Amino acid sequence: MENKDITTQRTSDSLLDVERTFKERLAYAGRFLWRDRSGVIGLVLFLIVVIAAVFAPQISPYDPLEQNLRDNKMPPAWSDGGSGDHPFGTDNLGRDSFSRIVYGARVSLTVGFFGVLIAGSLGLVIGAIAGYMGGRVDTAIMSIINLILSLPYLLFVVFIASVLGRSLLNVILIFGITDAPIFARVTRGEVLRMRESGYVESAISAGARWPRIIFDHILPNLIGPLITLATFEMSAMIFYEAGLGFLGLSVPPTIPSWGNMLAAGRKYLQAYPWIAAFPGLAIMFTSLGMNLLGDWLRDVLDPRLRRSRK
Amino acid sequence: MSNILEVNNLVTKFYTLDGVVNAVNGVSFDLEEGETLAIVGESGSGKSVTMMSLLGLIPMPPGKIEAGAAFFSGDEGRRDLLQMSPDELRDVRGGQIGFVFQDPISTLNPILTIGEQISEILTRHKGMSKDAARRRAIELLTQVGIPDPELRYKAFPFQFSGGMRQRVVIAIAIACTPKIIIADEPTTALDVTVQAQIVDLFKRLREALGVAVIWITHDLGVVAGVAERVLVMYGGRPVEIALVNDLYEHPQHPYTLGLLGALPRMDARESERLVSIKGTPPDLLLPLRHCPFAWRCEHAFDRCWQEIPPLITVGEQHQTSCFYDLEEGGPRDV
Amino acid sequence: MSENNVLLRVQNLKKYFPIVGGLLGRQIGAVKAVDGISFDIKRGETLGMVGESGCGKSTAGRAILQLHQPTSGKVFFEDKDLTQMSGEDIRQLRPKMQMIFQDPYATLNPRHSVGKIIGEPLVIHGIMKKGSSELKDRVVELLELVGMDPVYMRRFPHEFSGGQRQRIGIARSLSLDPSFIVCDEPISALDVSIQAQVVNLMQDLQEQLDVAYLFIAHDLSMVKHISHRIVVMYLGKVMELTERNTLFENPLHPYTQSLNSAVPIPDPKSEQKRRRFILKGDPPSPANPPSGCVFHTRCPLTEEKCITVEPEFREIHPGHFVACHLADEKGSSMIPEQTILASVMS
Prior knowledge:
The structure holds 3 protein chains of 3 kinds. Chain A is mainly alpha-helical. Chain A is built from 15 helices and no strands. Helix content of chain A is about 75%, strand content about 0%. The mean pLDDT of chain B is about 85. The longest helix of chain C has 18 residues. Chain C is globular and about 70 Å long. Chains in contact: A-B, A-C, B-C. At the B-C interface, helix 7, helix 8, helix 9, helix 10 and helix 11 of B face helix 6, helix 7, helix 8, helix 9 and helix 10 of C.
């Protein structure tokens, strides 16, 4: 036997066993953050939105619904006629734009989070069945999915929204169901790939039954790609929710949401552009942040890439 | 015989997240006109990075050539490849220095016919007319043993088998009558009967064209049949340079000895236990402070852990970087 | 050797993969990956299986273990026909027949720790409970058996080099005390110095545990080193089967002879002296194999009969099977000394 190997393997395996000093660790962390700077920026942007949504009552200086017609259409604080009381100015009814944007994050994140949760769960189950069973089941499911995906998405959503009427729950359901095919397709592809993978074959040759193969080998390896996809899809849902709001098909106008704010500012775009500009910027930065975050997660969540990414 | 290539103290590093990868740590060798030199080593030995550095194919960043010189005696006289501009290097590459990589698929453009790919080299480097290039390309295809060259001229890479593709790559490499062909594991991806064909082709071409060949491989079996001199690398360092017979009969470095012992012999009747080199290849993230093989060497003594052994001349055209004298069984007197 | 010493018997095993085409996905042909192979493996024996890429050797290994459903033929393992058994019955037999895979990077689940990977087969078959100290002890024992430090059990596959991963894969396949292991190119992804470590380890384990190997590889010299007997495959069929030394000293099939001569010997002097036959061309596609003897397109001795009639796989000497019309006691199938087959630059 070659048990002598052990000592040498250990000593020459510096990455595994050499203790790093504190300074080295700090340098490593620094290099890591610098390499992943775009991911870090994405994470920071996303966290700002989350904090805004969670602590909206504490952060916002005014009640987002409180009207003050005397101070309506005030410009932002840094331009002429602006005041520090209303950093982003006020809208046509004199409501504080900053407070409304902070509260609007709640609608966007709720729609994004629950929409992705529903779409992800549905898609995961459907996609896993299609990928694992294969054959006719797969063909049937994929035909339906391709049919849905071939519809013009925005028109489709607008149509359902106008039939169902304006409510937060409806918006979440619409996105949750219409987005499920995307999750299903990605899940199916990954499951198909994994079913042929070495470690699944290895599990079968060890005598594993199907529940173990699915729950121990396939599902854990799906988490990475699905979280990445969820980030991108959440960003897209926030985007589309604002679009629906702009068309007057999302949450009722009484609820402050970025889409509703855009819609309200549309009339004043020429004379008072800031009313629409700030919710627009909010959407843009949220979307940018989540896309950067998604790109980063894709690499970080793959254990095989973790060390080789250079 | 004069040297066509002289590489002195080449150092190439990669700056990565995990730290500095010391890929090549001071490699020197000469290549004579018309000679076949094999560079042998395992993965991570730096054999491919050495060649990529010479050809200017190291991605920078993260790679960086930190030191060294590589004098190539080409048509424009003796010049340092490492000091050339990217444009000059591109002219040398594929012109006076041809190369053949392990995987012909990645070398050939899938959407151009192989005829177009060979002609393009000829028109670019030799300024041939389209018609002359076509005639020469068909001649080259014949020379590398491709049947029906006129028909095959119009074929796409995917219509060829692995062995035939590698022949096409060789045709491209010799198109401009280069002075050197650098072949990086040219037969590794091929089946053994096809490998024998390609080895045979190389030998014939070398005689016909008088071209020098640098043959990079991990396979000491192929080396025995193809090379005149051998450079063994380990951990980004040359560990032994010798004429081929000398190397196999009197290996002077424990690593070379170990590699030879690790190979089963087809012509042995009783299968003896293979000599295995204990441990794993070196971690290139560690800066080199001593002999890179000391971790795995059963002869390592104090000095091996204190200095990097230089190349020591131990015979005619035979150098080794080891402080231990395998034949005397004790430390060398250097 | 006596009859009851046979552990595994393969009879006329075939595995065809359908080629589907057209809009309707109809079957328009078949890749005859394995096309009627027969041999047996004795207890504690290593049977080597060599052939070039596309000869069906990996498919054969998987079809024997029923990881690919065979198209036809029989596989007797301990006198039970695997091809007639239900999936659950085969599953119950899996502990006795295991597999070591080629690519130690792909076959270890990247999200499982080394301990979990090695112990999984024991948990699957309900031999030991997940998280039990008994299981932990067994994993420690297995890691030590394959020459690795037990502290590594908490680590993940991507932290190891290729050779170490292959040791982990071997430990996993040994966890259930199998009597038969299919080794599918277990060393071809490894460096030379590491290959020797793994081969030595496999030989040591065979001595200790009396396990039989089907050792599949394209590297003839390594197969010769480790095997007792060797099967030579070409385009889904067995060309020759005999003892290792006979295969190299008295190969009867022209394909075996040319394979032998193509393998480089790591010794410049013998390399210069050898006579070599270099075969023309590449192996044909298994989707469209040649008529008669599948080797006739590359064989230097081809006769009329070889093109039309498929040769029978027959026993020329005791224990020496060849599928060649010309093979006989007089050596009619030997490639003559002066034949040089290389047609390069002719």
